[in-house]
Task: structure prediction
Amino acid sequence: MAMQMYSIMNDFGPLPAFCDTYGSNSSPSSSQPESPSTSDDYDVENGQQTGFCGQVSTKPVSPVVMKKRRLAANARERRRMQNLNKAFDRLRHVLPSLGNDRQLSKYETLQMAQTYINALYDLLR
Result:
């Protein structure tokens, strides 16, 4: 239950009223992991771990841990962009082509998809 609330709170940002009422949870407990699981838990600029309500922990983070976190974040972002590009490729294959020899840009693909959907909608009316 505490981890669910922790996850929900990180999704919506800090809530000062909640933090003032229930206090901070900056010291690690047995129900929370030692290392932060989201970017909201970590201040990259200062290399410091933040607690539940955004207070900075006094425990320093080693450069090795910082590097591992950065590499993991880079891998997640690379995977996310690969999935996005694959989705655009799939969308390009279902859109009618104009006979161009070049691939449509992402913006052009979205414009073409919008036009195509509107044309199909008009056909159904």
